[in-house]
Amino acid sequence: xxxxxxxxQGTIDFFCAVYAIINASRLLLNxxxxxxxxxxxxxxxxxxxxxxxxxDYFMTVLxxxxxxxxxxxxxxxxxxxxxKYYGYDLQYSYPFYRxxxxxxPLLEEVEVFFNQPRQACIMRYHNFxxxxxxxxxxxxxxxxxxxxxxxxxxTTFEVKDLTLKxxxxxxxxxxxxxxxxxxxxxxxx
Length: 189
Description:
By secondary structure, the protein is α+β, with helices and mostly antiparallel strands. Helix content is 38%, strand content 26%.
Protein backbone atom coordinates (compact mmCIF):
# COMPACT_ATOMS: atom_id res chain seq x y z
CA UNK A 1 0.00 0.00 0.00
CA UNK A 2 1.36 3.39 -0.98
CA UNK A 3 0.90 6.28 1.46
CA UNK A 4 0.55 9.67 -0.16
CA UNK A 5 0.93 12.97 1.63
CA UNK A 6 -2.04 15.30 1.18
CA UNK A 7 -1.58 18.61 -0.55
CA UNK A 8 -1.89 21.64 1.65
CA GLN A 9 -2.25 25.33 0.90
CA GLY A 10 0.79 26.64 -0.90
CA THR A 11 1.94 23.40 -2.49
CA ILE A 12 0.01 23.77 -5.72
CA ASP A 13 -1.55 27.22 -5.90
CA PHE A 14 1.26 29.66 -4.97
CA PHE A 15 -1.14 32.07 -3.22
CA CYS A 16 0.48 31.59 0.19
CA ALA A 17 1.29 35.33 0.46
CA VAL A 18 -2.42 36.16 0.26
CA TYR A 19 -3.21 33.59 2.97
CA ALA A 20 -0.35 34.89 5.13
CA ILE A 21 -1.65 38.46 4.94
CA ILE A 22 -5.17 37.32 5.82
CA ASN A 23 -3.96 35.20 8.74
CA ALA A 24 -1.75 37.98 10.12
CA SER A 25 -4.59 40.50 9.79
CA ARG A 26 -6.94 38.09 11.51
CA LEU A 27 -4.58 37.73 14.46
CA LEU A 28 -4.19 41.50 14.72
CA LEU A 29 -7.91 42.22 14.49
CA ASN A 30 -8.65 39.55 17.10
CA UNK A 31 -6.21 41.35 19.42
CA UNK A 32 -8.35 44.46 18.89
CA UNK A 33 -11.44 42.40 19.87
CA UNK A 34 -12.78 42.49 16.32
CA UNK A 35 -14.23 39.11 15.40
CA UNK A 36 -12.76 38.05 12.08
CA UNK A 37 -15.15 35.33 10.94
CA UNK A 38 -14.71 32.83 8.13
CA UNK A 39 -17.07 34.94 6.01
CA UNK A 40 -14.97 38.06 6.61
CA UNK A 41 -11.88 36.08 5.67
CA UNK A 42 -13.55 35.01 2.42
CA UNK A 43 -14.38 38.63 1.54
CA UNK A 44 -10.80 39.70 2.25
CA UNK A 45 -9.49 36.80 0.15
CA UNK A 46 -11.79 37.73 -2.75
CA UNK A 47 -10.65 41.35 -2.51
CA UNK A 48 -6.94 40.45 -2.68
CA UNK A 49 -7.49 37.95 -5.49
CA UNK A 50 -9.48 40.53 -7.47
CA UNK A 51 -6.63 42.99 -6.91
CA UNK A 52 -4.14 40.47 -8.33
CA UNK A 53 -6.38 39.82 -11.32
CA UNK A 54 -7.10 43.49 -12.09
CA UNK A 55 -3.41 44.45 -11.82
CA ASP A 56 -2.39 41.55 -14.12
CA TYR A 57 -0.49 39.76 -11.34
CA PHE A 58 -2.77 36.74 -11.10
CA MET A 59 -1.03 34.51 -13.67
CA THR A 60 2.41 35.47 -12.36
CA VAL A 61 1.45 34.42 -8.83
CA LEU A 62 -0.33 31.33 -10.09
CA UNK A 63 2.78 30.10 -11.86
CA UNK A 64 5.66 31.64 -9.90
CA UNK A 65 4.48 32.84 -6.50
CA UNK A 66 4.84 36.23 -4.85
CA UNK A 67 8.11 38.16 -5.02
CA UNK A 68 9.09 40.98 -2.67
CA UNK A 69 7.76 43.95 -4.70
CA UNK A 70 4.43 42.20 -5.13
CA UNK A 71 4.28 41.39 -1.40
CA UNK A 72 4.72 45.13 -0.78
CA UNK A 73 1.82 45.86 -3.14
CA UNK A 74 -0.38 43.24 -1.47
CA UNK A 75 0.37 44.65 1.98
CA UNK A 76 -0.51 48.16 0.79
CA UNK A 77 -3.76 46.87 -0.68
CA UNK A 78 -4.52 44.97 2.53
CA UNK A 79 -4.02 48.20 4.48
CA UNK A 80 -6.50 49.99 2.21
CA UNK A 81 -9.00 47.18 2.78
CA UNK A 82 -8.55 47.10 6.57
CA UNK A 83 -8.92 50.86 6.76
CA LYS A 84 -12.13 50.82 4.72
CA TYR A 85 -13.84 47.93 6.52
CA TYR A 86 -12.34 47.99 10.01
CA GLY A 87 -10.93 51.48 10.57
CA TYR A 88 -7.31 50.33 10.97
CA ASP A 89 -4.15 50.86 8.95
CA LEU A 90 -1.89 47.85 8.54
CA GLN A 91 1.65 48.91 9.35
CA TYR A 92 4.54 46.70 8.35
CA SER A 93 8.31 46.71 8.27
CA TYR A 94 11.21 44.52 7.20
CA PRO A 95 13.43 44.78 10.30
CA PHE A 96 16.21 42.48 9.10
CA TYR A 97 16.35 43.28 5.39
CA ARG A 98 19.67 45.12 5.42
CA UNK A 99 20.81 44.16 8.92
CA UNK A 100 23.88 42.01 9.47
CA UNK A 101 22.82 39.45 12.02
CA UNK A 102 23.27 35.77 12.74
CA UNK A 103 20.40 33.30 12.90
CA UNK A 104 20.26 32.85 16.70
CA PRO A 105 19.93 36.56 17.63
CA LEU A 106 17.55 37.11 14.71
CA LEU A 107 15.26 34.35 15.94
CA GLU A 108 15.42 35.71 19.49
CA GLU A 109 14.32 39.13 18.23
CA VAL A 110 11.51 37.60 16.18
CA GLU A 111 10.37 35.54 19.18
CA VAL A 112 10.20 38.63 21.41
CA PHE A 113 8.27 40.60 18.78
CA PHE A 114 5.96 37.71 17.89
CA ASN A 115 4.99 36.98 21.48
CA GLN A 116 3.82 40.53 22.24
CA PRO A 117 0.13 41.38 21.97
CA ARG A 118 -1.10 43.33 18.97
CA GLN A 119 1.79 42.23 16.79
CA ALA A 120 2.11 39.57 14.11
CA CYS A 121 4.73 38.55 11.61
CA ILE A 122 4.91 36.95 8.22
CA MET A 123 7.95 34.88 7.35
CA ARG A 124 9.22 33.50 4.08
CA TYR A 125 10.55 29.96 4.44
CA HIS A 126 12.24 27.89 1.78
CA ASN A 127 13.17 24.25 1.91
CA PHE A 128 13.19 21.31 -0.47
CA UNK A 129 10.04 19.70 0.96
CA UNK A 130 7.84 22.76 1.51
CA UNK A 131 9.22 24.89 -1.32
CA UNK A 132 9.15 28.67 -1.15
CA UNK A 133 6.41 29.61 1.28
CA UNK A 134 5.07 32.75 2.98
CA UNK A 135 3.36 31.96 6.25
CA UNK A 136 2.41 33.25 9.67
CA UNK A 137 4.03 31.26 12.45
CA UNK A 138 1.59 29.94 15.02
CA UNK A 139 4.14 29.43 17.77
CA UNK A 140 7.70 30.65 18.04
CA UNK A 141 9.92 29.46 20.86
CA UNK A 142 13.66 29.20 21.35
CA UNK A 143 13.57 25.73 19.84
CA UNK A 144 10.81 25.62 17.26
CA UNK A 145 8.73 27.46 14.72
CA UNK A 146 5.30 25.86 14.25
CA UNK A 147 3.42 26.87 11.14
CA UNK A 148 -0.32 26.47 10.94
CA UNK A 149 -1.70 25.95 7.47
CA UNK A 150 -5.30 26.62 6.47
CA UNK A 151 -6.08 22.92 6.23
CA UNK A 152 -4.89 22.36 9.82
CA UNK A 153 -1.64 20.65 8.87
CA UNK A 154 1.22 21.76 11.08
CA THR A 155 4.84 21.91 10.06
CA THR A 156 7.46 22.25 12.76
CA PHE A 157 10.85 23.68 11.96
CA GLU A 158 13.50 23.05 14.57
CA VAL A 159 15.60 26.15 15.13
CA LYS A 160 18.76 24.11 14.59
CA ASP A 161 17.47 23.39 11.07
CA LEU A 162 16.96 27.08 10.15
CA THR A 163 19.54 29.18 8.33
CA LEU A 164 19.92 32.61 6.75
CA LYS A 165 22.30 31.32 4.09
CA UNK A 166 21.09 31.28 0.47
CA UNK A 167 18.90 28.33 -0.44
CA UNK A 168 20.50 25.07 -1.48
CA UNK A 169 19.51 21.43 -1.14
CA UNK A 170 21.15 20.91 2.21
CA UNK A 171 18.18 19.73 4.27
CA UNK A 172 17.91 23.09 6.04
CA UNK A 173 15.02 25.55 5.97
CA UNK A 174 16.18 28.90 4.73
CA UNK A 175 14.75 32.16 6.06
CA UNK A 176 14.93 35.18 3.82
CA UNK A 177 15.83 38.24 5.92
CA UNK A 178 13.78 40.41 3.56
CA UNK A 179 10.96 37.90 4.00
CA UNK A 180 10.54 38.57 7.71
CA UNK A 181 7.79 41.14 8.02
CA UNK A 182 6.58 42.69 11.27
CA UNK A 183 2.95 43.82 11.29
CA UNK A 184 0.87 45.97 13.61
CA UNK A 185 -2.43 47.83 13.35
CA UNK A 186 -2.93 51.51 13.97
CA UNK A 187 -6.34 53.12 14.38
CA UNK A 188 -7.04 55.13 11.21
CA UNK A 189 -7.48 58.87 11.64
